[in-house]
């Protein structure tokens, strides 16, 4: 009889249950429950020091959890040493053997297990990472991207159930990194095993992963498919760390029905209740958020052209920057000091220059609501600082 895998068969999942790591009085990873579905591309995303590497090392068995368990495919592996776990890790420093050529670097894991005829497997693996022609080169004769692919091939040849990647593209320049992102995604799709990828680069996480877990100070703040995290952030940290959000404090005017009516300065804004992650009661406060590309900008003289039913606020352009495909405007508004708007360069209005009075408007359905008790600036600038580091 053949057994068919169903959606409820999670035998290959990676499961972390209450996994915790403390160093003295410092908690690097707070009790964490996380399930990574078998065969998925999963990213742990967060700023430097938020606990990504520690989490990955606990999965690999390189770090002992202070509490909690790790299970792989339904088996508790918490007490297994790293080499007995069906897991391999690729690090940022590829750690290739400099005296061995590409072929022997990839063959290493097989030879160590006493397997004699390695040629077919190694050649297949080199084909997978498109290094067939470079088999006899030494690591120093390869580009950074090629070395990284050797490291991936060397890990995959052991047929791990899970491949862990710790900032594997961190040492590459931007263009090569973009190429390798697509390359790693292709390889993962082809081999179909679970990849858990650690990165501080939000664009990298969103490009590659099916599911992203955003970490902040040892905790997962939010987890989901990239588009869902981007469109429906539930915390200010996620809203600011993943792309850019305009957040403004607003008072709840009425909160019955499917829409919450907000008051911000002289503006009335509508927020779909389903997109508000905070409890909203009349008289209370929420943070209303909207992404810069969702907003349209018109000169104040044309304010009569704004269709009814749009959320709208007024302001004055403080700065513009032309980036080719779009123009980015910073608008000073009584309700938000630095409202960012990205406008595609289709027809540019020459009046939209610094100092101009403008009306910003957007579809209320694009508004999200967050708990006003949070720091409105959490996560702001973190991604940029990381990129420069
Ligand atoms: N062996 C250690 N002893 C003490 N603190 C540590 C140790 N390893 C990591 N940490 C601390 O734990 C936190 C998380 O580290 P890490 O998981 O490496 O972060 P990330 O990979 O997200 O940059 C950091 O504040 C780091 O300084
Ligand atoms: Mg790290």
Automatic annotation (TrEMBL):
Name of the protein described by the UniProt record: Spermidine/putrescine import ATP-binding protein PotA
Domain ABC transporter: residue ranges: 14-242
Entry keyword annotation includes Cell membrane: yes
Entry-linked InterPro entries: AAA+_ATPase (IPR003593), ABC_SmlMolc_Importer (IPR050093), ABC_transporter-like_ATP-bd (IPR003439), ABC_transporter-like_CS (IPR017871), Mo/tungstate-bd_C_term_dom (IPR008995), P-loop_NTPase (IPR027417), PotA-like (IPR005893), PotA_ATP-bd (IPR017879)
Lineage, uppermost ranks: Bacteria, Bacillati, Actinomycetota, Actinomycetes, Kitasatosporales
Any GO CC annotation of this UniProt entry: ATP-binding cassette (ABC) transporter complex
Catalytic reaction list: ATP + H2O + polyamine-[polyamine-binding protein]Side 1 = ADP + phosphate + polyamineSide 2 + [polyamine-binding protein]Side 1
Short name of one Pfam family: TOBE_2
SUPFAM superfamilies: MOP-like, P-loop containing nucleoside triphosphate hydrolases
NCBIfam families named in the record: potA (TIGR01187)
Entry similarity comment: Belongs to the ABC transporter superfamily. Spermidine/putrescine importer (TC 3.A.1.11.1) family.
Domain of life: Bacteria
């Amino acid at each position: 009889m053949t057994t068919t895998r169903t959606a409820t068969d999670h035998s290959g999942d990676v499961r972390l249950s209450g996994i915790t790591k403390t160093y003295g009085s410092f908690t690097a990873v707070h009790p964490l429950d996380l399930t990574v579905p078998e065969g998925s591309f999963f990213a742990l995303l967060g700023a430097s020091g938020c606990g990504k590497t520690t989490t990955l090392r606990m999965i690999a068995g390189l770090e002992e959890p202070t509490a909690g368990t790790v299970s792989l495919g339904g088996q508790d592996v918490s007490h297994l040493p790293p080499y007995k776990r069906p897991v391999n890790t690729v690090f940022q420093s590829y750690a290739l053997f400099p005296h061995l050529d590409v072929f022997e670097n990839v063959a290493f894991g097989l030879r160590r297990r006493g397997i004699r005829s390695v040629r077919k497997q190694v050649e297949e693996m080199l084909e997978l990472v498109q290094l067939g022609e470079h088999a006899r080169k030494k690591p120093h004769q390869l580009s950074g991207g090629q070395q990284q692919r050797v490291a991936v091939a060397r890990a995959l040849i052991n047929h791990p159930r899970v491949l862990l990647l710790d900032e594997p593209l961190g040492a590459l320049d931007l263009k090569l990194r973009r190429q390798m992102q697509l390359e790693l995604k292709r390889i993962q799709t082809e081999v179909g095993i679970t990849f858990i990828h650690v990165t501080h680069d939000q664009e990298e996480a969103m490009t590659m992963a099916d599911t992203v877990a955003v970490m902040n100070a040892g905790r997962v703040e939010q987890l989901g498919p990239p588009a869902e995290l981007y469109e429906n952030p539930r915390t200010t940290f996620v809203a600011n760390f993943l792309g850019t959000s305009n957040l403004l404090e607003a008072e709840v005017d009425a909160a019955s029905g499917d829409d919450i009516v907000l008051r911000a300065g002289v503006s009335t804004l509508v927020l779909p209740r389903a997109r508000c992650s905070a409890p909203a009661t009349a008289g209370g406060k929420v943070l209303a958020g909207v992404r810069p590309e969702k907003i349209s900008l018109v000169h104040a003289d044309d304010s009569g052209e704004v269709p009814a039913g749009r959320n709208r606020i007024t302001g004055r352009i403080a700065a513009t920057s032309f980036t080719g495909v779009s123009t980015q405007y910073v608008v000073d508004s009584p309700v938000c000091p630095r409202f960012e708007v990205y406008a595609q360069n289709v027809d540019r209005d020459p009046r939209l220059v610094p100092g101009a009075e403008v009306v910003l408007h957007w579809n209320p359905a694009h508004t999200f609501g967050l708990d006003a008790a949070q720091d409105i600036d959490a996560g702001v600038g973190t991604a940029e600082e990381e990129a420069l580091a």
